[in-house]
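Handout, section B. The chain below has 306 residues.
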Amino acid sequence: MRVGTRGSQLALTQTNWVVERLKKKHPRITIEVVPIRTTGDKVQSVSLSVIGGKGVFVKEIEEALLRGEVDIAVHSMKDMPFEIPGDLAIGAIPEREDPRDVFISGDGRRLDDLKPGARIGTGSLRRGLQLRSLVPSVEVVSIRGNLDTRIRKIEREKLDGIIVAAAGLRRMGWEDRATQFISVNQMIPAVGQGALAVELRRADDTTREIVSFLNDPATALAVMAERAFLGMLGGGCQVPVAGHATITDDVLHLQALVGNMDGSVVLRDEVKGPIGENIHLGKSLAERILSRGGREILAAVYACRE
C-alpha cells in the first residue's frame, strides 16, 4: 500500500500515525509513504486566498491518487474542500485531536496581557477576524509556512506571538511551546480542524475495508455536519468561516461564524439537534447565517475576486 501525503514534518508525523495503526491491524501489508509537494507548499510568498484557498494542499495528492500512484492519501481535514473529485471518497475519519487554536507568545504573555499594538502572526482570515474581536488593539500580521517555520518567525519577524492549531502542536509533541489554549467559544475552529481524512478511490472496495477500522463514528458525524455547513457557503470560499460541532448524549451542537474580509461584519449562530440529523443541522445553520447577511458577504467577496 502506497500512502500519499504532504512532505512537511507535521504531515509526515500524522501520516505515520495512520501508518502505524494500519501496520498493527494488518501486519502482512507492506506500506510505503510517498511525500508529494502541493501548490500550497510550493507557493509560500502570498496568502492562501490569492493562490486558491482550500484545495491547494490536496490537489496534487488527489491527482496522484486518481492516477493510481498512491492507494490512499492522508490529509488534514481542514484542508479538504467540500467538493472532492467524483472518483474519490473519504474512507475514514479517525478520532479527532484537540480542535482548539493555541497562542504561542514571544515573551510568555497571554492574550489578555498583550500590549496595545502587539503584532500577532497568522495566515488564517478566520483567526485574524476572531483575534481582533478578542483583542481589538492587536496588529494581525500575515504569515505562511509549516508549523516549525511559523514558530521561528516569532523571533525572526519580531512578532509578539502567533496563533496555530493545537492539534499540530500535540501531534508533534510540542505542547510545552503553547502559552494559551483558546476555547472554542472564544475562537471557533476551522471546519474539520483537528481531524484527519483518509481519502481513497471510490471504486476501491478492498482498500476501503482495510482502512475502515480507523473511522471514529462520533468524529465523523461532527465533521460531516461542519462540512455540510461549509458546502452551503460554496465549499471553500476565501472568507473568514468557522464551524465546530460537538456531541453530548446523542445531541449534536454546531456553532459557526462567517465574517467579511475587514471584520466589520461578523455573523455567528448555533444549532442543536439529534446526531442523525447532522447533515440537515449543518445546512440549516448555513441557511440561517446566509439569510442574516451571509449572502451579501459572499457576493461581495466573489465580486472582489473577479
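Note. The first strand starts at residue 2 and ends at 5. Compare this with the example in section A.
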